[in-house]
Amino acid sequence: MRGTYLWLAAAMMTASLAYAQQATITRLDGSKISALEIDGTMTRLMSAAEVTGAGIAVFNHGKIAYMKAYGFRDKAKNLPLTEDSVMSAASLSKVAFTYAVLQLADEGRLDLDKPVYQYLAKPLPEYPNYVDLANDPRYQRITARMLLSHTGGFANWRWFEDDRKLRIHFEPGSRYAYSGEGISLLQLVVETITKTPLEELMQQRVFQPLGMSRTSMVWQERFEGDYANGYDEYGRSLGPLKWHKAGAAGSMVTTLADFSRFMQAVLDGRLLRPKTREQMLSPQIQIVSKHMFPTLSEETSDENKAIRLSSGLGWSLYWTPYGEAFSKGGHDDGWRHYTICFDKPKTGIVIMTNSGNGEGIFEYLQEALLKNTFAPIAWENYTPYDKLPPRPPLEQHKQVEVNGKILDRYVGRYGLPPNIVLTVRREGDHLSVQENDEPKQDLMPESETDFFSTVSSDTYTFEINSEGKVITMILHADGKDIPIKRIE
Fold first, then answer.
1. Are residue 372 and residue 299 in the same domain, yes or no?
2. What does the pLDDT average to over 32-38?
3. Which of 28, 201, 226, 360 qualifies as a FRET site for 139, CA 20 to 30 Å off?
4. Residue 416 C-alpha from the chain's centroid
């Protein structure tokens, strides 16, 4: 943390400003906060929480009243984060996709309450990603409304299951359980209905109409001039996320300025019929889980009953003396984002960070910039930075020299069903591993079969059969041992 305040202050001086330094923001309770006070709050919180870079946009009366980026998009090169720096949006992708889905509902091309399998060209289990559902007829009851309100019955992702298989855990529509799998299924349905790939669809229906010129569901070469690296909790660069395959649940890349344009459109009700927008922000199911994650936990609580915590279509909803609030978070390695808006006063905030520590400032920023003290922070798993347990020290590894012929044996592709592929490459005296489109990680040998990542706490072990062939790579992460079979 030493020295953090100085480099944040320096970056703040060089970060571009789209709005006047003398701007004054009106908070929910009618009190005011000046640009100077916002700057001081951001610098203090980022320094204390060790957040590499962050951007904020504040809405008053449905308009962007203040927007600014702080800190770094590339700490090693001393490059400041800007309002136009391209960042991984993580799960903010889901609400942008929701907007496109609801446009199809407006046009009568998608019935939110019709079982989604009926839109497909063949039975759902005949699609490679859904063969696991062949013996569970409950998939025939899942609707688009359920998938958008996270009541479809799936885990967040199938790779969190012990056997990495997709299954329905409860009667569809009966309870809330946040699920990226559900959004991915709806992507298949939408692409089938429209006969249009997701990237093209999102450009036509959301990004271009809203002037989001630096937003895409896949990486574009035009983003190379100004993009941000993600950083983990220890401040190690994870690089940018450059997705080449569009995924509705999390592949969107965007900027603070562009996503703020999207949120302003949501507040204005642009692109949707009023009744459809009203449906989007209406409770679909009450949320009684104690925490949002782990998604399938049976632990319940009455703690959020007073604010009527519930799920809308794509959004989490709750009620306060200032009226209804709708929110969405984004969480990926090195990326932490959050947006919350109050519909009646049209007041809200967008927070985007390229730091694994970003969630530690969400509560304090809402309180300082909005005077919002009603957010279900505990349910959202957003522990303030000063209430976190001490960060464990990094595990120490010692690199050893391994013969190049041994390293060459491990080169290849390893797969987790249905569509996770890890590519192992030789990099001189060590290896690298890349999961799908995510940044490549260097793997250093600490024995002939054991390797450690230089940018995470993950370690890998290669298993060799009696014939001397490498058959499996075991990923040791988050206390789990995940076997990943070699596929070529």
1. yes
2. 96
3. 201
4. 21
Amino acid identity at 185: L
Measured in residues, the chain has a length of: 488
> Looking at residue 356, what is its pLDDT?
98
Does residue 368 share a domain with residue 418?
no
The answer to the question of residue 112 being in a domain is no
Kindly report, residue by residue over 236-249, the tens digit of the pLDDT: 999 999 999 999 99
pLDDT at position 479: 84
* CA dist., res. 410 & res. 407, Å (int): 6
Q: In what order do the strands lie in the sheet with 310-311?
A: 79-80, 63-74, 53-60, 347-353, 335-342, 323-332, 316-320, 310-311, 285-286
**Who contacts 251 (Cβ-Cβ below 8 Å, separation ≥6)?**
93, 217, 218, 243, 245, 437
Nearest Cα neighbor of 11 from 78, 77, 56 is 78
267 and 331 both lie in a single domain: yes
412 lies in the same domain as 336: no
In a domain, 168, yes or no: no
Do 344 and 438 share a domain, yes or no?
no
**Hey, what are 137's tokens?**
């007829």
Q: Whole domain around residue 31: which residue ranges?
A: 4-98+195-387
As a whole number of angstroms, the distance between CA 348 and CA 366 comes to 9
pLDDT of 406-420, one tens digit each? 999 999 999 987 788
For residue range 124-174, what is the model confidence (pLDDT) as tens digits?
A: 999 999 999 999 999 999 999 999 999 999 999 998 898 889 999 999 999
In a domain, 83, yes or no: yes
Residue 199, CA distances (Å) to 46, 51, 389 in order:
34, 31, 41
Taking the C-alpha atoms of residue 431 and residue 456, their distance in angstroms, rounded to an integer, is 15
The predicted structure's pLDDT at residue 478: 82
Which tokens belong to 392? 């464990």
- Counting the structural domains of the chain, the total is 2
Question: Can you give the pTM of this predicted structure?
Answer: 0.93
